[in-house]
Structures are given as structure tokens and as C-alpha cells.
Predict the structure.
Amino acid sequence: MSIETALPRREFLRRSCNGIGGLALATMLAEDAARAADPLAPKPPHFARKAKHCIFLFMAGGASQLDTFDYKPLLAKYAGQRLPKTPGLTGEIEGFLSHPHRAIPSPFEFRRAGQSGRWMTALLPKLADHADRLAFVHGIKVDNNNHGPATMHVNTGSQFQGHASIGSWIAYGLGSPNRSLPAYVVLQDPRGAPVNGAAVWSAGYLPAAYQGTLFRSKGAPVLDLERPLGVSRERQRQEFDLLQAINREHLATRAGDELEARIAAYELAFRVQAEAPGVVDLSRETAATGKLYGLDNPVTASFGRQCLLARRMVESGVRHVLCIHGVEIGRYSWDDHGNIAERIPAHLAEVDTPVAGLLTDLQSRGLLDETLVVWASEMGRTPFINDLESAKPGRDHNQWGLTVWMAGGGVQGGATAGDTGEFGIKSAGEPIPIRDVHATILDLLGLSDQRLTYLHAGRYRRLTDIGGQVLRQMIA
């Protein structure tokens, strides 16, 4: 090229950048078109990881870390007295501590478990057998000290409704290997719904194909899924084929129409009709398996059924299963403002056998390595109360003290991230924001929280919002 015809340097860079941008745009548009045509088609992860499925065990109401996994023996020294000042607190907890209060040590025995010597409440004897498989995150901070916003924050990354839940992001990022079941299944407590109800498993601004599907505890697993009386499967197939033909004719002249996702949804519903009843039919399980999950005990049978169904779901290829224990705020919630001496043992008795059974069963079937199991709640609890008179004290909300554990799916068993100091109020160092936990969950499934984005309202949205730091010590 002669000097006379050479492009100026700035013009060369401008044209080059535009070309690169065009290539990137073409790739993005191709990905969007593929998602629209088949939103749940399996997709490769961003990088290699062991976990292919996730079971998220959510204890609704704010499970007390101080009476389960966060042993604080020094609280006994201050029992009934004011606690020393904790620096760095703001918000409601700071207000609680500035008023008269008394320390409440755990009334339960703690024991060391496993070769790692993990301190755990003696009320979880069966889960203690898995101590060396568990990795803990202590001192997690959520952005609100109230149940509604905190529940949304832990489950969706935002304390406000309208955002996509963890399972929706995972389904969006990885698709589903089973085309006859939903990618994301919800098994809620049969006694009722959690705070915020279906918003907890919403797809938010993501396409509706990625929202959680609630499987009921009785009757048909999915509401309105059964065929009408007198309609055979063959006749229904003919009706669907006619409807799909009309939809595709409509779509042919309207490129980019979201009708493609509706067509895929009809096909999925037809396939779920055939497969879902078999997946939830526990009569196919042996008596030994039922006993492992506690189905032979009325105390453990309910959550045991949820955990056993969760195993059957991931075994069938479901990508994400949300199991909820606890009902809004009240008798069956983990919101124990009073009488922890009686209420917490009741909660733990319901979940110890089922959760331990789930881990044992996954391991025996070779599924634990590819299934990430997460235990979480929406917040921690305080090691003190402002009520100076109650003979049956409880614990108040603590947005600074959430404890989460993970197991399976490439997790480094025995690992610990974070620390809540001597009293379990807040992190002894920098608090761990919940977005770091979300980034770690995604990483264990081979997804980068920075790359897993969705353009909504002019902004690329992420589960971790401004981005999270992966807790590398949790990953084997």
C-alpha cells in the first residue's frame, strides 16, 4: 500500500474496532436466536467443573447459626449480661446493641465431628457423619434485616422482587439435559409457602422458560397438567400438532416473535405429562431407601419426601431443585424469637435424617460429585435479646451472621470461609456479601458470574449485580 493510500492510524483503529464489534454482535445475536428457538437446550459451561446439578436447601425464617454450626462458647461467660461493643455495625443490629440487652448462649451441646473436627450441634447427629464433606461460609451479610427483602436477596441476589432466582440463572446458563422435565423444580414445605411465595423462584426479567416449576406434595405434581377426562394421549397429540402448526405459520411472517418460546413450552408440557408422574412415584423406592430419608417417621417424613424427590429429580436430569423447609412466619418457621430451647430441636429433628440421607444416597449412587448441595437461610440470628425478662428467650434477626454450607459438586470438604468472631454477631474481618456466595455457586457449576448476563432495561444484569468474588477455598 502506498503512502498516499494508507489509512490514518485513527481511521484504521476505528474500522478495526467496528469489525470486531460486528463479530461480537453477530455471535450474541446467534446465541439469542438459539435460545429463542429452544431456550432449554443444553449449553456448555464457561469452564470445566464437576457439578452439573444443584440442590438448594432453604430453611425459611432465619435459621440460628449459633445453635447449629457457629459454636461460641464465650457466650456462656456473658450469659444474662451486656456484650462488649462490636465495631463496624450499622442499622438495626447496632440499635439493638445500644439498648439494654442480655447475652443468650446456646442451650445445646456442641460436639466436634469428623476428621476436620468441625463443631456442630449435637442435635444433628446424622448430618455430623458428613462433616468432612461440608464446607462452611460464616459471617455472610445480606442487605436487609427483615424476612421479605432478605429472602429475596439470598434467593435472587436482590432484596427487591422482579429479579431472577438462582435456579433461573443456572437454567439460563446451562439449559437442561432432560427435555421431558422442567429444568428448575421447586419442592416447598407442604404446610405452606415461604415469605414472598412464588417470587422466591421467579425468573424475573429472564424469559419465563427459566422460572421454577412448583411440584405439589399431593395429587398431580403440576397444577392443570393432567389430561381432561375422556381425552386420550393420541387425541391430545393431534390437538397439539394442529396448534403448533398454526403457531409456526404465524411465526413464519414475524421473525423474532416470542411465540417460539411458547411453542417450546407446549411441547415441554406434553412431555412432562408423561414423565413427571413417574418421577414423583416413590413407591418405586425400596423400604431401605425410605428409611434412609426418614419416610418411616412422621417427624421426618415430610422433608424426607422433598429430599428424596430432589435426588430423583437430579437423577432424571433436572438442573436445579429448590427444597424449602419452613412456612412464612409462625409455628413452622425458623423465625425463633422465643423459646429456642424447644423450637430449634423441633426444626432440627425434621431435617437431620432427610439431609443426611440425601448426602448418603447421592454418594452411594455416584451422584454427589456432580451435584452441588447448598444449605442456606435468609439471615442469621443474634447472640443476645433486648427482652430482659422472658424465661424462654429466643433470638432476633441478624443480617450480618448468616451461615451457609455446601457439599458435593467439587466442593472442598472441611473448608471454611469467614469468621464471626467471639460472639457470632458479625464477621471478624470484612463481611462476606451474599453475592460472593452466589458467585461461588455459579463457579462450581462452571459459570462465570461476570459472563452470565442478560440485557434488561438497557443494562446487562447479573445474579451478583456488581459482581462477586469467588470463595476459592470452597473449591477442591
About this structure: The first strand starts at residue 53 and ends at 59. Residues 52-221+280-474 form a domain with the Alkaline Phosphatase, subunit A fold (CATH 3.40.720.10). The chain has a mean pLDDT of 89.
